[in-house]
Amino acid sequence: MNTNSNLYIFIYSSVMVIIVAAALSFTAITLQPLQEKNIEIEKQQNILASVNIEATTENAQELYKKFITNSYVVNSKGEKLEGKIAFNSNLAQEVAKAHADRDLPIYKCTKEEKEYFIIPIRGKGLWGPLWGYIALEADLNTIYGAVFDHKGETPGLGSEINQEAFQKPFKGKTLFNAEGKFVSITVHKGGKGAAAAAGDLEHGVDAISGGTITSKGLEAMISDCLAPYETFLKTQKN
User: Fold this and answer.
1) How many domains does the chain have?
2) Does the residue 25 lie in any domain?
3) pLDDT tens digit string along 167-222?
């Protein structure tokens, strides 16, 4: 065949496209189990981080089995849903539903003979999704720990939500006021000391300086994701 002909070029190009496509498909299929495993381990690390347990990729599974002693899914009435697996819940799909229609995953941690309840959250920031985990003490009101992350928030500004300096002040804040009303957590803009200046030391934290939109998005995420758990939290506490 004439290697300079249009037919040869067409056949050669077609064969190369098929070979490359087949190679890419094979690679994607081969790596998929490994990618899914990495996602699972990262999720376990984040859940553990909310209760101040540092885990590596090597020991995350072992620590998860040790400290996460139970997990289940409830509805907005606080009723456990049989046949549902908390770890498999697709939070992106759930938060798109009305509060009353959501499946609500819960993880129970037992650490140093104390129990903590971990709730996953997901919302929207300035440039993309936000997510995280809120760990509550046994009173189902006081925050024991919080971990947040993002996809694409502005470096040095909104991206700071995944830093300890922003997450640590959530510890000790409460979700219910003195009358037992769910008030969630308020993120006060104005820089360091803004929550104190507003007289909101029980339910408020300082926003990230220069990252107001991300901070308020995180505030909305916490409120929207925890509100459907109100009946469960009150029922379990009683």
Assistant:
1) 1
2) no
3) 999 999 999 999 999 999 999 987 788 999 889 999 999 998 888 889 999 999 99
